[in-house]
Design goal:
This protein has four domains: 50 residues; 148 residues, Beta-Lactamase (2-Layer Sandwich); 151 residues, 2-Layer Sandwich (Alpha-Beta Plaits); 249 residues, TIM Barrel, CATH 3.20.20.450. 52% of the residues lie in helices and 19% in strands. The chain has 21 helices and 22 strands. Strands 14-15-17-18-19-20-21-22 form an eight-stranded mixed barrel, surrounded by four helices. It has a six-stranded antiparallel beta sheet with strand order 3-2-1-6-5-4. The termini are far apart.
Length: 664
């Protein structure tokens, strides 16, 4: 029993011990599990912190990269705006790219000047000089296809392989090329990067590459824009010749050089004769064609050191530096005039243009550029006054004359409004002595200079454009005067009024004439408009159209100074004129050739030609009875000149009309 109890007690103790052990194990296991969980949670927190730290580091690196790019961009933009030399900007960009791509080489090509820029890596002696090569040395087809290209091996690529022999690509493997374009899409160059390992560019490298190529394109485009603006500021838009600003700069340089070398400098001032009429007659497009033709012809005559400039309108200037004698300027002027005399083809026709040239020399005629230019201008106006199509050297006497001419131009602007202009009327008679009518002739009585002849102020009026206002005033005044005489009893008389080229070529000129006739009450058949033969022959087709409109209006037309130009029978038929006025030069020679009758056949031919076309003939400038008798014998229909009466005021004409019992 005792043993059984002992055994039971022993078993109970073992059972309790096992239970205690199990409880201990369970407790320790729980502790280990909790510790495990804590460790796993700590590890997960550490992992999360590591990820956050890496993300922060990456973001920080990206921010640093962005800031570096922004600072780089800002630095280069500042250099571009401040007009740093283009080559220094492009070289610095290539060096920057090569620094980001160890072992790589970068090239930038500029299409405008056909050059390839490359900066080699720095050596112990400092930075290598800029390498320039023709554009076709740049490998790749980006400049043709205009997109990013990657070539894995230039030695195997069919496009790149042909450039390997140049030596420029020695040791290079792959290449990336990017076209450089402006904001408007203009292709202006190439960016090429040649990495040594042949790998493909990373995303960040592509971004860096695009930024650098964008900066290169911006720098090239900005410089080209600046160059274009500078060129436009110093060159004529139509002819691309130097303008007056660049002309003055080059003239100052030529004078400074001539002072050092003891040489002459010649300035030739060229003005086209009658260019305003070409513009008014044929239009500004044809006028521009004449200016371009003139530019091409004169350019062919220049030496490399000479300068041809367009000062504006139809005015050109030439600088002849390094002249050894006056004969150099003479030869150039003669060659210029000769080149201009050749006809200019124009829409199936030939246009003839001449020029007048003034010449001034340094140091003979002036000591500075401004005075030299003014003196050449004065000499040019002297050439105009001599009859045009010639050249004149400056003389001190011209200075006062050119100043007087400028004063007359200014005074003519006020002459009409201040009542300084007036009309005189010269009678025209039939060969049998019957009065035909009057020719209205303009007079200018200057308050300081007195009477100024029309031969002097009419050309000024035509050049300045004042002829439109003055001519319209003269036409209206003459029509009103004849209408008043007709209202007083005068009948069957004509009023002849001279017409300028500028007036005739106005598109609304016929309407202007009709309006004046209506306002003054003068019948159209009582008005005769006179045109010079030289004016008519400048553009026969256009003149014929305008004269046809006048004839339809009922106005008569006369050709003045006939016989001095190049009219043909065919042209006269086209023009539908009523009267030919024989030029006074033929009439004045009648006395000189009284014994030989040399000019009689010419006058007879003109009269017979006119009569064959059904035209009336009037001889101008009849001064003697002998001239009048010869003209009557030759069959001339009308006579005009001082033999019968000089140009008279309206009141003197009324006296004449009363004497002829034409007025009560």
């Amino acid at each position: 029993m005792d043993e059984l109890q002992l055994l039971r007690r022993r078993l109970e103790r073992e059972k309790q011990a096992r239970r205690a052990a199990e409880l201990f194990i369970e407790e320790k296991s729980l502790e280990l599990y909790i510790e495990q969980q804590k460790r796993e949670q700590a590890f997960q927190a550490l992992q999360a912190q590591t990820v956050a730290t890496n993300t922060l580091n990456r973001q920080l690196q990206e921010e640093i990269s962005r800031r570096i790019q922004a600072e780089t961009l800002e630095s280069f933009l500042e250099r571009i705006v401040q007009d740093h030399p283009l080559h220094s900007i492009l070289v610095e960009l290539t060096r920057m790219v090569e620094a980001q791509t160890p072992g790589g080489r970068c090239f930038i090509a500029v299409h405008a000047d056909g050059e390839l820029f490359h900066a080699e890596r720095e050596s112990s002696e400092g930075r290598a000089p800029l390498i320039q090569a023709p554009l076709h040395w740049l490998p790749g087809g980006a400049h043709e296809q205009r997109h990013i290209q990657r070539v894995e091996d230039v030695r195997r690529h069919p496009v790149w392989r042909r450039h390997c022999d140049s030596g420029l690509l020695d040791g290079l493997g792959s290449a990336w090329t990017v076209p450089l374009t402006t904001a408007h899409g203009e292709h202006i160059g190439e960016f090429a990067l040649h990495p040594p390992d042949g790998r493909a560019p990373s995303e960040s490298e592509l971004e860096w590459m695009m930024m650098i190529s964008g900066l290169a394109a911006l720098a090239i485009g900005h410089r080209q824009l600046a160059d274009n603006l500078n060129h436009q500021a110093h060159h004529d838009a139509l002819t691309d010749l130097p303008n007056r600003f660049l002309f003055r700069d080059r003239l100052n340089q030529a004078i400074a050089h001539a002072r050092r070398e003891d040489h002459r400098v010649g300035v030739l001032f060229l003005d086209l004769d009658g260019f305003k009429h070409i513009n008014d007659t044929l239009g500004h497009q044809q006028g521009d064609n004449v200016l371009m033709a003139t530019t091409r012809r004169i350019r062919r005559l220049l030496r490399e050191t000479d300068t041809l400039a367009r000062m504006g309108g139809d005015e050109f200037t030439l600088i002849l530096p390094g002249m050894k004698s006056v004969a150099d300027a003479t030869r150039m002027a003669e060659r210029c005039l000769e080149s201009l005399r050749r006809p200019i083809p124009m829409d199936g026709h030939e246009l003839y243009v001449t020029g007048s040239i003034g010449i001034a020399l340094f140091p003979d005629d002036a000591r500075d550029a401004e005075q030299l230019q003014r003196n050449a201008d004065a000499a040019m106006y002297r050439a105009k006054a001599r009859g045009k199509n010639c050249f004149e050297f400056f003389t001190p006497a011209l200075t006062a004359g050119s100043r007087e001419l400028l004063d007359l131009r200014a005074d003519l602007h006020h002459a009409l409004e201040e009542g300084q202009l007036s009309l005189h009327y010269q009678p025209q008679y039939r060969a049998d002595g019957v009065l035909l009518g009057f020719e209205a002739l303009m007079r200018w009585h200057h308050p300081r200079h007195g009477a100024i002849p029309p031969s002097r102020f009419i050309p000024i009026a035509e050049e300045s454009g004042l002829i439109l206002a003055i001519g319209q005033w003269a036409l209206e005044h003459a029509c009103r005067q004849m209408a008043q005489w007709q209202a007083s009893g005068v009948a069957h008389l004509l009023m002849a009024v001279n017409l300028s080229a500028v007036q005739l070529q106005q598109e609304d000129w016929t309407r202007t004439v009709a309006r004046i006739l209506d306002a003054t009450g003068l019948p159209a058949a009582s008005l005769e408009l006179e045109l010079t033969e030289s004016l008519v022959m400048q553009d026969v087709q256009s003149t014929a159209r305008h004269l046809r409109e006048l004839r339809e209006l009922g106005v008569r037309v006369a050709i003045d100074d006939f016989g001095t130009g190049y009219s043909s029978l065919n042209y006269l038929r086209q023009l539908l004129v009523d009267t030919l006025k024989i030029d006074r030069s033929f009439i004045s020679e009648i006395e000189a050739s009284a014994d030989t009758g040399l000019h009689y056949p010419i006058i007879r031919s003109i009269i017979e030609l006119g009569h064959s076309l059904g035209l009336s003939l009037i001889a101008e400038g009849v001064e003697t009875e002998h001239q009048a008798s010869i003209l009557r014998a030759l069959g001339c229909d009308g006579l005009q000149g001082h033999l019968f009466a000089p140009p008279m005021t309206a009141s003197d004409c009324e006296t004449l009309l009363r004497q002829l019992r034409a007025l009560p």
